[in-house]
Amino acid sequence: MKRRDFFKKGTKAAIAAGSVPMIFTSCASTNDIVYDKPQDKWYHLGTGKSGTPNRKPVKNYDVAVIGGGAAGICAAVAAARNGSKTVLIQDRPVLGGNASSEIRVHLNGVNNIKGKAERETGIIEEILLHNRFENEQEAFPVFDHVMYDFVVREPNLTLMLNTQAVEAVMEGNKIKSAMCWQATTEKMFTINAPIFIDSSGDGLLAATSGAEYRTGREGKAEFNETYAPDEPDGWQMGATLLMSSTDMGKPMKYSPPSYAIKYTHEGGHKRRKFAGFHEGIWWIEVGSDDDIIADAEENRHKLMGYLHGVWDYIKNSGKFPEAENLALDWVGSLPGRRESRRFIGDYIVSERDMTEHKHFDDAVAFGGWSLDEHNPGGIENISEPPSYFYYHFKEVYQFPFRSLYSKNVSNLMFAGRNVSQTHIALSSSRIMATCALQGQAVGTAATICNKRNILPREVGQKYIKELQEQLLRDDAFIPKRPANDPLDLARKSSLIFGSSTSSGDAKNLLNGMSRDIDGKINHWQSDGLSADIQLEWESPTSISKVELKCDTNVKRNIMMRKDSRNNDLYGNHVPKEMLKSLSIQGRVNGAWVKLGKIEENRTRLIKFNFKPTEVTAVKIKMTDTYGTKNVKLFEVRCYA
Amino acid sequence: MVNFFKIYFWILIPFLLLNNSKQQQDGYKTISHEVIINHPGEKEPVETILEEIQNKNGLPIQYTMDVYSVICLEQVCKVIPVKLYWNNIGEYQKYELAKDATLEKYEADLFEPQDYIKLQSILSNNNSPFKEVYLDEILTVPDEHGDEDLDAVSGATSLELDEKDTVPGAALTCYTLWHWANGDVVLKIKNQTGKSVSTSQLQEFILDKNNTYFKIAINEFQNRKEFSKPVVDTIIKKVLIDSTLLRTTLSYLKNVSPELYFYALNRFFFEGEKEQKLAAIQSLRQTSHSISKDYLDKFSSKIKSLNSFQEVSLFLGLMEDKNSNSKVVIENSMTLLDADFLIARRSYWFLKNQELSNKQTNRLHAFYEKHKSRL
Prior knowledge:
The complex is a heterodimer. In chain A, about 20% of the residues lie in helices and about 25% in strands. Chain A is an alpha+beta fold.
């Protein structure tokens, strides 16, 4: 029997009296799995039969993504949309990782560069916009379901929740299968795939595959890092437990539980502030200088104790009269982790790559959060500031593809905090939206691997332009890397113009830069609505796709915040700049014919697909935005 | 505590005015206006007095308002009155403190001489970062370079103000005064200036190099329902040299008589550059006025001098919509078949749907034979 057939049959196995338990010793090393059904004495009253349930399904995918946080979602969606049959395996009951309702960290990114955001686009933006449409009330549990919707609606993507990839099965230096335990069904899945992406944060699958990794802080000398300690040590930034409170309209008493750890703030550093405490305190944080994963349960218990200790201090010390009517209405039980394993790739990103804005030919993502290293000790060392903001970026930095795949496990990629970087680099790039860009990059790369039957390193060496072009087409942004897609027929047009122009130029829509940046305007903006953009070709050209990038104001943040902040830097609603209603026409034999119409657009990247049509011109007619009087575009593409 | 002092201060304002508002120069007139200002540092809109100073011709030349700076230390707040000055289009000019009054910082430090200079430069910058900052951010971050993590929070913020954008230790003062100087009051001043001046002064505003005057004037013309030919002529004169004002102007022209509307568009089309021509054609396509055939035929005499595809295409679109099968237009458009190919193709498809003479049909067919693979 061919191996593939064997797997196929395996997947069809169901509970059947007397069926032989499927142990995949031929394809997977399952020796250590504590799963032995022969002892199971199941008598099924419904069928009157006894036997053993088969709970060892085998599944085959083109890409397996482990970890369903922002990075993993983006990786899985990118892989699925680009044509790979993909599975997303998440060990929690909800998606979103640190941004989920279980933890509730804001999904930050490049929030503030010289007073303005330089927001991430692509899949992560689509998620945040989806949330703005579906979750006007800004509820964290609803955000869980928004992300769920975002994932399960993808036709090429399978989601497995409550499932943890616990062990890699190797074939040489490749991961052949991931053994995945699904707690809710007592199933041990064997997931086979040619490409694995570990975006789980801690990276258990990757660790069991033998991928090289490190923990702790590099010494100054290794990468010539200004902000690294003089000597290497084992310290890893801690995990945080958040809480929230509500004003009950009357004085509320609070007595701490038995496990609360008394907090006095005595000797606390002046930067250890309580501002916004009613929505949680990020410096209720405990780390480790040893095996932070092994310490996790102990630290969780401590964090719960500190959380109540600090709340007791706020409620009962007399120093916070404004807290009199407040009561806790949500307390976290799952700490949000910042750091543990960092896997080694062909390149290790370090501090100077970021602060000196190193140009990488294989850049696929960007970041710009401050170098923000939390203090060693966390809340157990309050005499230090809770974080050291060593460096505030004045422009975004690039992140290279070579740091997103394993040096020694050939079919394994990473996205998120576990990528190949130093501790100091991590202090900036760990931010979720930055991780999400890495996710989209590796998800897209995975598809190239499958399409060309190659491994990630080869993508970096031979097909990096193809990867970058696909990312740019899918609305990712790579600093200082304009798109130049030879298949884009808009670039072959003879003329492009707007019906009116209040700023920029219609020609900018073909220059490959999808945002205004580095002091340059790359947009066209109408003067009023409605407005048209028209492209003319010298000869009839067959097209079946028109793709636009409209304005969503990437200089203003759109992630959900607990304080629902709404000012020039943070918006709490659908961006008013975004294009809402538009239609496109093609000129065929001198007459305009309708090619597509969208009434309630919800994305920055707007796609029209239609049957191939020979046109000499395309007209994009824009009639409405979500609030602004003018419409602004950044890109127009046309494809055969 | 802060609010208490603010209320106390506003009660005092009339008395301050009694002391400060009597200084009038020869021939100059001061008029007091009660205005309601929304200030982001105030929970409720603030009723206050805006002083308008007019010259002897009745032209507003300056506005002033008494506001306050507040500084709080250990629950004790101190209010310092400040007088702000604007020009007649609401651009902040300067501030003045009462005699012997000084501004203070957080740590009870007094403003240094250079701090006063810097404050002036902050208030003069109508794009200051203070525009985007929330009051709580100022109140909770005494250290302007304060480092607050955002990642796991909550309410804390990293308020990063460059040293050039604030007086260190006095962000609240800068914030409060900046919003007084550059907030709601600017629009109030513009509207008041419009109201105060005569129609002939408004016509001078139209021609001023600073387009803010144009906007004040055209807005006021609409308020006064002033749609006379001399006014329209003045507006046309300005718009023929500044196309950025076309949109505002076309909105104004919706209210003038049809005769004046067609007169204005005719001048834009025949005397204007590309932008004026495009605006005229677009407006004619959209207008609900009925347009005479003769009027549009005359436009077509200009068709060969249209320089861009966009102008030609839009013009032919107008003819398709509102002047189909005009012999004059057809004759003029035939000449475009020899123009740049994109323009020629556009006119080919226009002419294809018109009623042509035999000669014209033959000419069109010859064009088709020559270019059929590219049509």
